[in-house]
Design brief:
Elements lengths: L8 H7 L8 E6 L7 E7 L2 E7 L8 H13 L17 E3 L2 E7 L11 H17 L13 H11 L5 H15 L8 E4 L8 E4 L2 E5 L6 E4 H12 L13 H14 L10 H21 L13 H6 L2
Helix pairs in contact: 3-6, 3-7, 4-5, 4-8, 5-8, 6-8
Length: 306
């Protein structure tokens, strides 16, 4: 849960004068996510999500917002940004860059089954294909440089065994840093709570706050690690092959993995696990202050690593 910047009714009313939304009927914080401040907003002219970007530099916002607009125009189930009266997609609210996007129907699935994994794999591949002609580029702010910085920050809180695992995995991944994998715009955080469903159909892909230019297979690996890992019991951290096979097969039916991507798939899975183990350790031990905050458990991603 996360609300780092409180927005009062008066704050909202002043900010919304730049939009043509009509009267506001609902305004409430979203008790999900850990990166930005989000509110549901319902007005005469639609249902929206208001996001205050807590960490993103204002100069990077066009990458994210134009990416969502690009996907929405391409028919991908992504939230379209709402322009204000001047056509701008964002402006400052309480000192933070902020914008509105369309609120999509559907609900996230907490315990995905094979059909959900397949549908998510298909949706991710279609997103990658649609972004094939998206020309904007942005370095991944949670890439290898951040891994090293985060590892130094969390090291005092870790056991000797954990420090050894973290050090060896970062060293291992450094050996593959220049692998020639297909690259483009990726979601970067396609966890179960960022895909909305109506039944077994994907109705929305949300939360593009970690989008970046990176390896497409890495984006798929991030999803597989979350959607397809066994969460409980002696096998916790292992992949449920029925779910992972379904997700990967559905993805490849739209965008087949290349001859360069296939041999490196186990390495990419480990890179994805390392990235989220580190981010969850960081949020657990070095949390930001917020009105509503909750750190997710880092252990599932630690267990994925060898």
């Amino acid at each position: 849960m996360a609300v780092y910047t409180t927005v009062s009714a008066d704050d909202l009313a002043v900010w919304l004068t730049r939009y043509a939304l009509g009267a506001v009927h609902e305004f409430e914080p979203i008790v999900a996510g850990i990166e930005n401040t989000n509110y549901f907003l319902t007005a005469d002219n639609g249902h929206f999500v208001l996001t205050l970007y807590e960490r993103l530099p204002a100069e990077d916002l066009p990458f994210y917002l134009n990416l969502m607009a690009h996907l929405a125009r391409a028919g991908v189930q992504a939230p379209a940004p709402e322009p204000d009266r001047s056509g701008a997609l964002w402006s400052f609210l309480n000192g933070k860059p902020a914008g509105l996007v369309a609120r999509l129907d559907g609900v996230a699935v907490e315990r995905p089954q094979i059909p959900h994994c397949a549908a998510a794999g298909d949706a991710l591949a279609r997103m990658h294909v649609a972004l094939g002609n998206y020309r904007a580029r942005l370095s991944n702010r949670r890439g290898p440089a951040w891994w090293r910085q985060a590892a130094r920050a969390v090291r005092p809180f870790l056991s000797v065994e954990q420090i050894g695992l973290l050090t060896s995995e970062i060293k291992f991944q450094a050996g593959f840093a220049k692998a020639r994998l297909a690259r483009g715009a990726i979601h970067g955080d396609l966890f179960c709570d960022n895909v909305l469903f109506e039944g077994e159909r994907v109705s929305g892909i949300i939360d593009f706050g970690f989008a970046a230019t990176d390896a497409l297979a890495y984006d798929l690996a991030i999803a597989v690690n979350d959607w397809c890992s066994v969460s409980e019991g002696a096998s916790a951290g292992a992949l449920d092959l029925s779910r992972s096979d379904a997700m990967i097969a559905a993805y490849e039916a739209v965008r087949p993995l290349s001859g360069e991507e296939r041999p490196l798939w186990p390495v990419v899975l480990r890179a994805a696990a390392l990235r989220f183990w580190l981010s969850r350790l960081y949020d657990l031990y070095l949390p930001r202050s917020g009105e509503l905050t909750h750190a997710h458990d880092p252990v599932p991603f630690e267990r994925i690593l060898p």
